[in-house]
Design a protein that fits this description.
The chain has helices spanning 31-41, 72-86, 129-139, 169-173, 179-189, 223-235, and strands at residues 5-9, 18-23, 45-53, 56-62, 67-68, 89-95, 98-106, 113-118, 123-126, 153-156, 160-165, 191-199, 204-211, 216-219, 245-249, 257-263, 270-278. By secondary structure, the protein is of the alpha+beta class. The protein folds into two domains: 5-118, Diaminopimelate Epimerase, Chain A, domain 1; 123-269, Diaminopimelate Epimerase, Chain A, domain 1, CATH 3.10.310.10. Residues 106-127 are annotated as: Disordered. Residues 113-127 have a biased composition (Polar residues). InterPro entries: Phenazine_PhzF-like.
Length: 280
């Protein structure tokens, strides 16, 4: 019988964060069976592990509708789940987007585990005016709802995310989009999510991530988007090469999540850190 674990990532509270499935040993499972498990769980992602060595695994990620190359929150959930079994230390994950090492550490006082992933290489390119216009139409937003200080870009950290800055926190909070229209566009462009954010300060951000391509209205915490967004901020000069940022996500969904991220100096990758806790 296949063992299936349930964790929520980027929160120490089971009522917060982004739930993910974790299959510690998926040896022998077919793609249809993995997709079936992911669909039955109904979480935005489920991670399937294939042991390849000591503290080393090949990992695949499935949403309820499709496989994705890389998923941050399921990686954090997986690393904490493994850390509880094999102890703190580095876990080597081989994803379809490339190697993703994860460092699992224990808080010296509480003993609570957290995980820090090193993302695949990050890049960012300007979004086309047509793509922005179509996205705004699907969101029910106007151009005036965007913060002109942050240009729309498509950021990549193992998968693609359209990055759009909301002009106000109220605009970000009021999200009621056309699921079919945005899903069609994201599928056409191969975007995993649309990363909507509002800048509270130069290093503190609030985010929301519609995920219609995966059959999910919204992600409560999106580690891959956080990695891509951090690279976007660095590449466009909004943060320094070693500046740490904080991202609040899931608040408007009632599942508050906290993501910490930073660039890696002299490397094209970024780091994303979070906790995770088992679900009943």
């Amino acid at each position: 019988m296949t063992e299936i674990l349930k964790y929520t990532a980027f929160s120490a509270d089971p009522s917060g964060g982004n739930p993910a499935g974790v299959v510690p040993d998926a040896t022998g499972l077919t793609e249809p069976r993995m997709l079936e498990i992911a669909a039955d769980l109904g979480f935005s992602e489920t991670a399937f592990l294939f042991p390849t060595g000591e503290r080393a695994y090949r990992i695949r990620y499935f949403s309820p509708l499709a496989e994705v190359a890389f998923c941050g929150h399921a990686t954090i959930a997986t690393a904490v789940a493994l850390g509880e079994r094999i102890g703190p230390g580095t876990i080597e994950l081989a994803t379809q987007a490339g190697p993703v090492p994860v460092d699992v550490t224990a808080d010296p006082e509480s003993g609570r585990l957290s995980a820090t992933l090193t993302s695949p290489p990050v890049s960012s390119t300007a979004a086309s005016d047509d793509d922005v216009a179509r996205t705004l139409a699907a969101l029910g937003w106007s151009a005036d709802d965007l913060d002109p200080a942050y240009p729309p870009h498509v950021a990549d950290a193992g998968n693609l995310h359209l990055v759009l800055a909301a002009a106000t926190r109220a605009r970000l909070a009021d999200l009621d989009y056309d699921f079919e229209a945005l899903g069609k566009l994201t599928a056409e462009r191969n975007w995993t999510t649309v990363h909507l954010f509002w800048a509270e300060s130069p290093t503190v951000f609030h985010a929301r991530d519609p995920f219609p391509t995966g059959g999910v209205v919204e992600d409560p915490a999106t580690g891959a988007a956080a990695a891509a967004f951090t690279g976007y901020l660095r590449d466009l000069g909004f943060i320094g090469a070693d500046t740490a940022i904080t991202i609040h996500q899931g608040v408007d969904m009632g599942r508050p999540s906290l993501l910490a991220a930073s660039p890696i100096p002299h490397r094209p990758n970024t780091k994303v850190t979070g906790t995770a806790v088992a679900l009943p």
